[in-house]
Every structure is written in structure tokens, then in C-alpha cells.
Design brief:
16 helices
Amino acid sequence: MTETVVSTRKPRPGVAVLVEPPGATTVPRRRKDSGGRLRALDGLRLVAALMVALYHYGGRGGEVAQAWGTSPKDQFPTLHSLFAYGCLGVQVFFVISGFVICMSGWGRPLKSFFASRASRLLPAYWVAVLIVTAVFALPMVAYKAVSPSDALVNLTMLQMPLGVDRVLGVCWTLWAEVRFYALFALCVVLPGANRRRVIMFCAGWMLAAVIAENANMPLLDIVLMPEYAPFFIGGVGLYLVHRDRRDVYGWGIVAVSWLIGQHYAVQALWHAPDPEAFSYRSAFGIIAVVTFGFVAVAAIALGLLNRVNWRWLTVAGALTYPFYLVHEHLGWVVIHALHRGLGLASGVTFALTVASMLLLAWLLNKYVEKPLTPRLRAALAKAR
């Protein structure tokens, strides 16, 4: 959800593409690096972020109900059941992440990979933590701020394993991303990425994750992430397909990942119809959204969406990460101010809240990420 999108496929005539060429290692039938941007992937990333926002604003209960004054079920009597599927935007993010991390780590030394990931994640994250902490500390805001000590720990991005209160509700997904980065760095980037090593990494991780599911060992669950591994692995498999659409092993990794991934998604999100529950997600609906994530990334990997090359998608991709960081908790404050404070209608409040969070994301990208990311990357890359 946070990575630079770089294509290593040879572009078709007349199709523009972007970004930092990661270098390469030889693999069978490898296509020439184009150094181009997959703008459709930027668009898909924003779609996934908006799915999560739909869920947080209108597809769940909890603290957002305090912002609306009543349950979102009452605010959106028809749409709330559709918004409830928006939480699966996280799984779509993980598939995208698997694709892009394999792309950006291929042929890159470990130091450069670490510098790239850290500089991409941290500047906007640090500022988002400080902003949300400061806003929640205001006397007119109804939500409780975390303690100063916990806020400082949140700056490390290690609050989840330390059991510290979170400043950002979405940071649990970043903890999953960090663990994926660590696994990929140690198993693939450090020894040097090549097709065989990536295939063995995918097969070994998937098998170990499935075994860990019934091993009753919390450490294995933390390291191997059985419920999220299929989505990251599926994205990695799709990158192999991007390099060579005839790669049978790549397609096999994608197929197994989809089969196991939909199982975990249904297991986590499906429940029998219950009038006391906030909403009811059908198993078919859950499978359909998971399938959408895999199919959309596959279409991009195969070049089927190369014509989706609008410049504004680059901006959309740049806004996605800061929007994702700030939209949930600050969105509660905006919803309360617009709906309960100014008396605006639910639909208008919803639209203005999303727009305000996108505006804040643009400001974070312009004044935080653009100046700080290259400087931090250069400092980390030069450090001994």
C-alpha cells in the first residue's frame, strides 16, 4: 500500500510507464526493464483505501457511532451492508504489496531495500501519529488520547508486539507489512533474488504458515501470519507472472494463494445471520471481493490495463498511504463536527469527510513525504 510501483515488463508501443528501476537478476525469459510506472496499480491502491474508508465510516459499529450520534446502520440503512465488505480492502492491499515488494526487491542489495522501505513508510507515519495524538488531546474532542509514553512508543511502529495502545487504528496492517518485509528481506533480498529462490520462498512460507495454524505456538503465528500470508504470497506469485506470463509455477502460487486466502477471509468475516450483529456478509460476497483483488492485480500484471495510464492515477497512488494513515480516527472528528455540529445530512457528511481526508493526505504528501522521503533514503543508504 505504500510502495513505488515499478514495471519490469517491456512496454507496448505508445504506452507510458514510470519509476525507479530496481536492477535485476537473470531469470528465464526475463523481459527488458522499462523503468515504467504501472499507473493502474496506483488506481487500484486508492480503490482499496476507499474501500477501507467506507467500512470505517459506514460499515461497522464501535466508536464511529459516537461520531454519527447513532449507529451507521441507522445512517445508511441500505448501504451499510455493502460498506461492511470494505474491510477486505486490506486483503487487496496485501496482494498489491506482495507484487510490488517482490518487484522493488529484485536485484537490489539489502541496504538499499531497507532504505527504500523505511524512507517510504516512516515520514508520513511519524507525522500522522503526532497529528492524531494532538487532535485527540484537544478538550473539545470526545475521543481519548493515548498516554504520552504510548504515543512515543507508537513512533517506533512496534506498538503491536509491545502491547501498547495504538494511536492509529490501521497500524495493525503496517505491523503485518513490516513482518512481510522482514521475511522477504531475509529469505530473498539478502541472498539475492532470482526466480527459483522466490518460488522456494513462496512454497516454504505457505507450507509453514499452514502448519503453524494448528501448532498452537503464538511465536509461529506472529512470524508466519497464517491468515495474511496467502495474500502477500499471491502478490509475489503475480509478479512472477508479470515477468513471464507462461510461468506455470507463478500461476500455481497464485491459485493456491487464492484458494487458501478466501478460506481465511471467510473464516474471519462470515457468521450466521444474526439480528444483533451490525451487518451480515455472505460467504459468496467475501469470496467475490477477495477474487476481485487477485483478478485486478493479475490484469495489471498481464498488461491488460496498460491503457489505464492517466496521469492523475500517479497522484492517486501518492495520496493513498497518507490517506490510509489518517482517515479513520481523524474522520471520526470530522464526522462529528459536520453531522452533529453543523447538522449536515449523512451522505453530505460522508462525502465531505472523505474529501477532507484526501486533502490532508495531499498536504502530507507535498510537505512531508516529498521533502523527507528522499533525504531519509539517502541518509540510510549512505550510513555504514
